[in-house]
Amino acid sequence: MQVARRFFIIGVFAFAGSQARAQTASLPLKHTPGRTQTAITAADLMTRLYIYSDDSMMGRMAGTEYNLKATVYIAAEVKRMRLQPAGDSGTYFQNVPLVKRQLDPNASLSVEGTSFTPWEQFVPRDPGVATRAFEGAQTVYAGVLGDSTQLTGEQAAGKFVVLSIRRGPNLPPSAQVNRGALLARYRAAAGIAVVALETFPPQAINFFRSPQTTLKDTQGPADTTSLPVYIYVSSAGAQTLMGASLDSLKPGAPGKTVHGSVSFTGTAAPARNVVAILPGSDPALKGEYVAIGAHNDHIGFDSEPVDHDSIRAYNDALRKLQLASAGQRITPDQIQQIHVNADSLHRLHAARRDSIFNGADDDGSGTTAVLEIAEAFAGAKVKPKRSIIFVWHTGEELGLFGSQYFTDHPTVTRDSIVAQLNMDMVGRGRADDENGGSPGYLELIGTRRLSTELGDLIETVNKARAQPFTFDYQFDATGHPEQYYCRSDHYMYARYGIPIAFFTTGKHRDYHQVTDEPEYIDYDKLAHVAQFVHDVATSVANLDHRVVVDKPKPDPHGNCVQ
User: Fold this and answer.
1) In a 3-state reduction of DSSP, which class is residue 499?
2) Disulfide-capable partner of 83 in 58, 255, 276, 463 (CB 3.0 to 4.6 Å)?
3) What's the CA angle centered on 74, arms 72 and 77, to 5 degrees?
C-alpha cells in the first residue's frame, strides 16, 4: 500500500519509520518453483509468494531492473495459463513512462551576495514538471499558513512567497503542509518558501535528496507545464530572504530580491504493468470487463543491513502499544520506553542481517492472489459471461503511477470496464495485527462509494460462504485520517466512475519494514480472500446488467477526497 504522500508531515519521524528504509538479507527460498493447481490453494500461494518475494527480486522497486524481473515472472505465468495478452503491441506488458528526477547540480539560490547551500540551508521539492524562473523576483511575506490574513494567489503573483507555519505548546506535535494546495494557490508566484526546515530530521532531508521517480505522462491540464519553485527554509533563512525577522512582519510585507535557478533533471526509469484477459463466454457481454488488480512493485532495498529480529521485536512492541491505545496518539515517552533485548533473541538463532524490503504482504500477497484467481478462471470448464481483465500495476508505492497510466491509457475501452476489484495486503489480519483481527477479518473500502449495488452484491456473496468474513468498514469512513480510499490503485479507476472494491487485511508491524517476509503470511487466510474475490468477480461478470452507478462521479483529474 502506498505511503500517504498528499500531505508531508513536519515533525520527528518515529524510530520504526526510519527503519522502514532498511532491507533484509532475505530468508532462504523454502519452496522451489513447480506447477500449480487450477484450484486456489494455500500451498500454491505459498509457492508463488516465496518466489515473488525472494531476495533475488531485491524489493521490486518500480523503475529498476528488479521490478522488470518481477513482471517477467507474472507474464510467464499468465502465458502458461493461455490468457490473452493485453499490453503494448500484442505483449503482456504495458510500458509506463516513469522518470527518475533529481536536483540539477547547477541549482543555486542567493540574496544580495548571500548564497544558500542546497540540502543544508534550503531543501527543494520537485513538482514533477518544469519549475519557473525566479531570477530577480522580490520576496514577499505571505503570513501564517491557514490564517485568514494569508496572501491570496493574486497578491503573490510574480513574487517569491515566504510562508510561516503555526507553532505553539497547545498545537499538535506536527503540522501538515498540503504542498499541492499551496502550489495551486500560488500558481502564479515565482517561488514558495515554507519556513519549516529546522523541524526536519536528517532522514527526511536524505529522502528528498535522493532521486525521486515520477510519471512523465500525467494527462493534467495544459497549464501544468511549469510551477513555482518550492523550497523549505529555516527561520534564519527566512530572515535572510526577507531582510527582517518574520515576527516583525505583516502579510504582504516586501523583502529582498532573489537570484539563481532551481530546476530538476530527469532520466527514463523502466517500468511496466502486466495485463492479460480471460475472454467472456457470452457473445453479447464479452466486450465488457471485470478488472481484477494488485500492484507488482515494492520499495526496494537499503545500503545498510539491520537486525531482522530486533527490528521485528521493536515494531511488535510498538504495534501492541498502538492496538492498546484504541486510536490515541502514542507519546514519545512511551516510544522511548521500548527496549529490545537482542541477546535473548539471538539465543534462539543467529542474527539475521537484512537490507531487502521483500514486500511479501505488500503487495506480494495481492499479486500472487490475482495469479491464483487467474489460473482458477483459466482452468474452469465454464467461463464467466463477461471478460476478466487482470492488471498488475507498477509504481503504486511511488504514487499510483501504473494504475494512473493504465486508466488514462487503457488497453481496452475504458467505458467497457464495469468494475474493478483491488487487493493490496491481503495475507494477514490476525489479532496481533488489528483490533478485532481474526481468520475471518477483512477490511472493505469503497464498495458503495459509486455503486450501492456492488456493495450489496459483495455482502450477498459473503453470506453464501461456508465461513463468511467479518467485514471491517471503519477505514471507509468519510474523512478517515488513514485515507485508504485514496492510497491504492482502485482509486485511479474510481476517479473515472468505475465502481470499485478494495480488499485488504490491514496494516501490521511489518508494513514497509524489512520484516515483511513470506514466513509471516497466513496462507489459509490468503487462499480464502483470493477465493472470495474470485466469487465476487464471477457474480459481477454474470449479472444480466452492468453494476449500477448511483453515486456522484469524482473529477478524474482532481484530488482524491475520502
Assistant:
1) coil
2) 276
3) 105
